[in-house]
Amino acid sequence: MVPVRVLVVDDSRAMRALLRACLERDPGVRVVAEAGDPHEARAAVKAAAPDVILLDVNMPRMDGLAFLERLMRLRPTPVIMVSTAVGDGATALAALELGAFDCVPKPAHPEARHDPFPDLAARVRAAALAPIGALGPGGLGPHRPPGQASDYRPGRRVLGIGASTGGVEALLRLLAGFPATCPPTVVTQHMPPGFTERFARRLDAHCAAEVREATAGAPLVPGRIYLAPGDAHLEVAGRARRVCHLNDGPSDSGHRPSCDVMFASLARLGSEAVGVILTGMGRDGAAGLLALRAAGGRTLGQDAATSLVYGMPRAAFEAGAVERQLALAALPAAALALCAAQSPDG
Fold it and tell me: What CATH number does the domain containing 45 carry?
């Protein structure tokens, strides 16, 4: 196996050494260059041609977001932001919208931890597999303007959407294709606390339907889309009157919020539920989506070509949980058709 070649960009020499040590415990990853600021990084990109870049935000001479914007415009390369700044939802969302593959916050006192970045090497290996054409702002191709499907009539079905790495861009594209009368929709996107409320506002500004962070007891009605908070599982409760239920129980499939938990709750609705699984690393969502399909619900998955990380959709497809795999651009119409009143697809 050829190791993934990594450039580490951070103004702290100690942090660069720590990141190198964490990464090189994995034989599939090798740090080929380091840089103390974006000006040094520019030269290192040309000289070392890294497969993946780890990039800090707050640095001298140029901040990491400005460098990220230039890099994605001139030489798209998978970037993982590793910074205390990405603990702020606005900064992390800005980085992802500029084309960052992922964001990893630095823990407090990382030098005191045995393994301060336990899954960083896995994220680097996943980033190296990202299709170059999907990187950068708007990299997943054209999307429909909000609300074009004006002839859509909602039925009884509730829609659930699960996503992880790459999901910020994918959800923007998918939900922008929904009309103001879209089906009642719940969304689980793996995000830390404090991030989801800002992301919900960002989605709301780009969608014809109303998007908000989920709260306990919020009614599931047409035209409403609810995003799971970053520190709670989002479930659907009730049958005659469906509402959001927040569950602060332990992580499931390594995540809270968990796509598996959300899809499993939708399975209780049987044929009145539809599930869609989007880009993401790992297996979260596969078991829950399989339960939903087994209960009579309908299911869709994002295909490999348009997934930034074909991990979660692949796991669900291989488990038999996905009826059809479609390109991201085709998913809005397909999901609406399954949820519509008197749907031709049943």
Answer: 3.40.50.2300
Task: State how far the alpha carbon of 8 is from the alpha carbons of 67, 82, 94, 159, 317, in Å.
Answer: 13, 9, 20, 41, 35
Catalytic residue among 143, 190, 233, 255: 190
Note whether 199 and 298 are same-domain residues.
yes
- Same domain for 210 and 301, yes or no, is yes
Does the active-site annotation cover 307? no
pLDDT in tens, 304-331: 999 989 999 999 999 999 999 999 999 9
164 is catalytic: yes
Across the beta sheet with 224-227, the strand order is 210-213, 224-227, 185-189, 158-163, 273-277, 298-302, 324-326
Write out pLDDT tens, residues 150-188. Answer: 578 888 999 999 999 889 889 999 999 999 999 999 999
The CA-CA-CA angle for residues 181, 184, 189, to 5°, reads 120
Residues 55-79: tens digit of each pLDDT: 999 999 899 999 999 999 999 999 9
Measured distance CA(99)–CA(33) in Å, rounded: 22
Given 81, 100, 134, the domain boundary residue is 134
Averaged confidence pLDDT in the chain:
90
Token pair belonging to 107: 């823990």
190 is catalytic: yes
> What is the domain range of residue 197?
158-339
**CA quadruple 78, 124, 317, 196: dihedral, nearest 10:** -70
The alpha-carbon radius of gyration of the chain (Å, integer) is 20
Q: Are residues 203 and 266 in the same domain?
A: yes
Catalytic residue among 56, 102, 143, 164: 164
Parallel, antiparallel or unpaired: strands 102-104 and 224-227: unpaired
